[in-house]
Amino acid sequence: MTAAGKPISEAPILEVRDLATHFFTRAGVVKAVDGVSFSLNRGEIIGLVGESGSGKSVTGFSLIGLVDPPGRIVGGSVKLEGQELVGLNDAGLRKVRGARIAMVFQDPMVTLNPVLTIGQQMHLALAAHESISKRAARARSAEALTRVGIPDAPARLDAYPHQFSGGMRQRVAIAIALLHGTKAIIADEPTTALDVSIQAQILSEMRELAREMGTALVWISHDLSTVSTLASRILVMYAGRIVEEGPTAQVLRSPRHPYTAGLLRSLPAMAKPGTDLEQIPGTTPSLLDLPEGCPFRPRCDRASELCAKDPPMTRADDRGYRCHHTLEEMVSA
Description:
Radius of gyration: 21 Å
Keywords: ATP-binding, Cell membrane, Membrane, Nucleotide-binding, Transport
Strand order of the largest sheet: 6-7-8-3-9-10-12-11
Subcellular location: Cell inner membrane
Largest sheet: 8 strands, mixed
Protein name: ATP-binding cassette domain-containing protein
Shape: globular
CATH topology of the domain at 12-100 and 180-284: Rossmann fold
Number of helices: 12
Distance between the termini: 39 Å
Structural class: alpha/beta
Domain ABC transporter: 14-264
CATH class of the domain at 12-100 and 180-284: Alpha Beta
Main location: membrane
């Protein structure tokens, strides 16, 4: 398959199995990522969604070994084209980051150095992984900027980050991630701070890049509507776990976990004009003090005695959900 956002190869670029990242604090152990598993194929775009504190960003950082103390990956596997990244030393991770897997952060000003020109920063990114002349680096950099929609790219290489708009800076960050023909990109809410029209442009460009270059994307977001236009598959996270996964259209049309259904009901597009938005009651639980059994139980209007036990991940029809009940069962009851 070659449609944007869909896999064009069955061999996984990224394979994650039972990934667990914990933070060891004075107050106790925070299980920020607790047994996350998924795979990513060449050219595929998956969306990782959930409320703040669900573990989305920590999952992204864990994939490329950017978890700082007191956090630590305590279990599981992350394989990039068959190479195990968990347990790889700093030198090994530096060879992989940027060259084969990269991350685009929410705020490009965190990524970009304000005292270096865009061209200098892109040259440094290239020189970190290969021997390259200034002329060749400049040509590659201009090509990458053009690819992400920056006009007059050769001239813009001499500009500084503050001379770009927020949307253009984010394009620069994406271009840097693409310099080495990166196999996979982890994008951590990269369009959250941008206006709607710029968001739409960048999403369109990312779909095009996935289709043309075969770059695989993990798009992390709290915005289901954004992910629905981009990703072919959705992974819904809650309290450090994936609670539902499946093809985007199927998950949005018929969610099988009450949390996913609650997220969908809270979207403005789902509300009738003049009515209040529905919201999920309560707040996400503290990862230091999770409720017994299903962590969503205190907020769920479908909770029963069964929910006092931890629900397993049930898989059927290319779907997965971690719930003792499904919405389909509730409707038919």
